[in-house]
């Protein structure tokens, strides 16, 4: 394969404008001492009330942190304090940071087209699934079931792929939005099939390495230099593996696939993630980016809108009553959450990015308090910024305009 991606990320050119003539650097987002204290108090209260044992919160404009703070302990059973460089299991943030970025890079280089069908890569696929397209996997409109339990199925990686290619669909492609792990498991397999590399090899060579990320990777204890368990926040006890999970992926499906899959498995810290998000959305101050301006613009758009639910390519969108980004980020925001207690939300135009890393599952996945905390946190942060110029609109107006009869099956259309 030609060395296109390395040339792409090292090529310097003007950073793209996402939706206006302004670039992220043209905004001047600041948090004064009073605002920082208010955010600190909010997070300290979350720790004290048991939302999570500890967390790291980063607020950035483009690739520059304007606020970063560590809170609490790494575990409920340990007095070790969280540090700014503590590494967390990102869970489903893997979907957008690695898998979505990889698919867009392959689209740019002509190795696939987003409207290609699954059968173009896997001719052995069942008749029922052969008309599912790549973009439908990315927007969660494939009709595939939400959950699979691979660790309960016998067999190796090849058997897993065969199992996924013969799943029983729950809807026709393009008819429903159902957030589905199988979608991104299959996208990971597509990347591997095209490149002849494992997904972690691909990530190291074409994303993590070119981006200069030092504390990011799959199977972190094996692949991140000078990283020990003491630098990683543990997750929870796993009944299937019969042990406390610490330094290994929390997600059972990913663990069954040896810690590497398209829907989970990535570990990182806040400093690396700020750089990575900026490079995906063409916000990097040095104008070194992982995707072309055209791809970054596509990722910032909404392609599905039904019953108030907006989704982009891989990325979730704001403007949703249930959005973890809260009210103020609005429909221009792109983000995602991770089951372990992580989230990223960014406004590509202004470069505002909020990264929350926690291990809320440490005391057991039954703790769901983070669902209420996330939107409240983002509302607080946005309201405290000194320059409110992100051009959002009240969510009620966005929902009122939503059309329940979207034609997802006809191809990518900006909504």
From TrEMBL:
Pfam families: Beta-lactamase
GO molecular function annotations of the record: hydrolase activity
Superkingdom of this protein's organism: Bacteria
Keywords: Hydrolase
Gene3D superfamilies: DD-peptidase/beta-lactamase superfamily
Keyword Ligase: no
InterPro entries noted in UniProt: Beta-lactam-related, Beta-lactam/transpept-like, Diverse_Enzym_Activities
Signal sequence interval, chain numbering: none
Beta-lactamase-related domain span: 40-368
PANTHER family according to UniProt: BETA-LACTAMASE-RELATED, BETA-LACTAMASE-RELATED DOMAIN-CONTAINING PROTEIN
Protein name: Beta-lactamase family protein
Species assigned in the record: Halonatronomonas betaini
């Amino acid at each position: 394969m030609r060395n296109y991606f390395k040339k792409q990320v090292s090529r310097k050119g003007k950073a793209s404008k996402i939706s206006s003539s302004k670039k992220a650097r043209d905004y001047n987002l600041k948090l004064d001492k009073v605002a920082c204290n208010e955010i600190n108090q909010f997070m300290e209260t979350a720790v004290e009330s048991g939302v999570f044992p500890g967390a790291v919160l980063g607020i950035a404009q483009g690739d520059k942190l304007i606020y970063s703070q560590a809170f609490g302990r790494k575990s409920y059973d340990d007095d070790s304090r969280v540090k700014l460089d503590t590494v967390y299991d990102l869970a489903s943030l893997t979907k957008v940071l690695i898998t979505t970025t990889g698919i867009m890079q392959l689209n740019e280089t002509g190795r696939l087209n987003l409207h290609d069908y699954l059968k173009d890569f896997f001719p052995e696929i069942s008749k029922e699934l052969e008309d599912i397209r790549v973009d439908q996997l990315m927007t969660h409109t494939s009709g595939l079931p939400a959950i699979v339990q691979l660790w309960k199925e016998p067999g190796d990686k090849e058997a897993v792929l065969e199992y996924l290619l013969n799943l029983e669909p729950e809807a026709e492609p393009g008819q429903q939005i159902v957030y589905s792990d199988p979608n991104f498991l299959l996208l990971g397999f597509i990347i591997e099939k095209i490149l002849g590399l494992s997904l972690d090899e691909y990530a190291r060579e074409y994303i993590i390495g070119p981006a200069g990320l030092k504390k990011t990777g799959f199977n972190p204890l094996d692949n991140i230099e000078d990283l020990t368990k003491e630098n990683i926040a543990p997750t929870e006890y796993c009944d299937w593996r019969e042990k406390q999970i610490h330094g290994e992926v929390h997600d059972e499906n990913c663990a069954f696939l040896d810690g590497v899959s398209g829907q989970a498995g990535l570990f990182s810290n806040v400093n690396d993630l700020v750089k990575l998000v900026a490079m995906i959305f063409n916000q990097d101050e040095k104008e070194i980016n992982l995707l072309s301006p055209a791809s970054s613009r596509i990722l910032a758009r909404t392609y599905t809108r039904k019953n108030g639910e907006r989704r982009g390519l891989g990325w979730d969108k704001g403007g949703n009553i249930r959005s973890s980004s809260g009210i103020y980020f609005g429909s221009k925001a792109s983000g995602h959450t991770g089951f372990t207690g992580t989230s990223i939300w960014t406004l590509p135009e202004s470069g505002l990015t909020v990264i929350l890393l926690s291990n809320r599952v440490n005391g057991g996945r039954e703790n769901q308090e983070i669902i209420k905390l996330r939107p409240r946190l983002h509302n607080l942060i946005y309201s405290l910024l000194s320059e409110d110029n992100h051009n959002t609109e009240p969510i009620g107006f966005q929902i009122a305009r939503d059309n329940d009869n979207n034609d997802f099956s006809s191809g990518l259309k900006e909504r």
